[in-house]
Amino acid sequence: MSTLTEARPDTSPARSTVTARPRPFRLVRHSLALAKRSLIKTARTPEALIDVTLQPALFLVIFVYIFGGAVAGSTHDYLQFLLPGILAQTIATGAIAIGVNLNTDIAKGIFDRFRSLPVPRSAPLVGAVLGDVVRYVVVTVSTLAIGYLLGFRIDSDPLRALAGCLLAVLFALCLSWLPVLVSMKVRTPGAVQGVMFALIMPLSFASNVFVSADTLPGWMQAFVDVNPMTHLVAAMRGLFLGTPLGTHVWWTLAWCAGFVAVFMPLALRAYRKRV
What string of DSSP letters covers 4-41? Predict the structure, then answer.
């Protein structure tokens, strides 16, 4: 008599190990897919890039031609000094937009829809941060292009100039976790913008962005010397203009690592509690 046996799936540990995808790989894959969503959204609303294209142009024209003669004695010399600072300031303030957008999306219920998808819980947040990198590339290219039209010239080699651009983009990408955290803590997009401007403006003006740190009062220099914007601007000036770099690049990289190590876990924790 023949015996019929029911075929059963192989559930051995070895089989599961081969077919199951590691969780970090799933997080990266889904985060990149959601980052693509952010890029498509930006492409369909180009007016959202006004703050990273028009703002640096206005700042350069206003500060160079109004204050250049008084500060540096020459508009050209001040343009060479100012442009790396304007790039650092604009790329830092440009990171505020991700906090505003995330807060708006949460209010609209978009993240509730993401929860129904078979994706890791933190993938929408990580994807939004990765997708925002296009804003930082746009502000870097537009600022250098506008500066070139006004007379700015890079005095170092192309590789060092590219390194300066990449350093600025990396700084903004790491700093963006701070507005992400703020967006999870406050209730309205306007509150996100207000809180972030209150945090970014002191970093921008109490630094070497507009004037040399040596001209500032002694009590302020203690803050300026440890200000992450100061290190970023000094590093970009060294990479763009060939001035001494010192340890500014390493300090900037250390600040980037610190932003991610502190604000990213806090933002993910606040995100899980809120949505």
Answer: ---------HHHHHHHSPPHHHHHHHHHHHHHHHHHHH
How far apart are alpha carbons 154 and 34 in whole angstroms? 36
Check if the beta carbon of residue 168 is closer than 8 Å to that of residue 253: no
Calculate ∠ Cα 75-76-79, nearest 5°.
85
Residue 54 CA neighbour count, 13 Å, CB half: 6
Predicted confidence at residue 4, as pLDDT, reads: 45
Q: Which residues contact 138 (CB under 8 A, 6 or more apart)?
A: 49, 52, 53
Q: Is 206 exposed, middle or buried (0-12, 13-18, 19+ CB in 10 A)?
A: middle
* Tens digit of each residue's pLDDT (9 = 90 or more) over 109-136: 777 677 777 777 777 778 888 888 888 8
Cα 97–Cα 213–Cα 160 angle in degrees, nearest 5: 65
Give pLDDT, residue 40.
72
- The gap from C-alpha 209 to its chain's centroid, in whole angstroms, comes to 18
Query: Residues in the chain, how many?
Result: 275
If you search the block for the tokens 């876990």, which residue do you land on?
Answer: 265
CA atoms within 13 A on the CB side of 116: 4
Find the helix packing angle between 50-72 and 133-150, rounded to 10°. 40
| pTM reported for the whole predicted model | 0.82
Question: Cα angle at 230 between 82 and 75, to 5 degrees?
Answer: 10
For residue range 6-60, list pLDDT tens digits in order.
Answer: 444 444 444 444 344 556 677 777 777 777 776 776 667 766 677 677 888 898 9
Find all residues with CB under 8 Å of 170, minimum gap 6, and list them. Answer: 253, 256
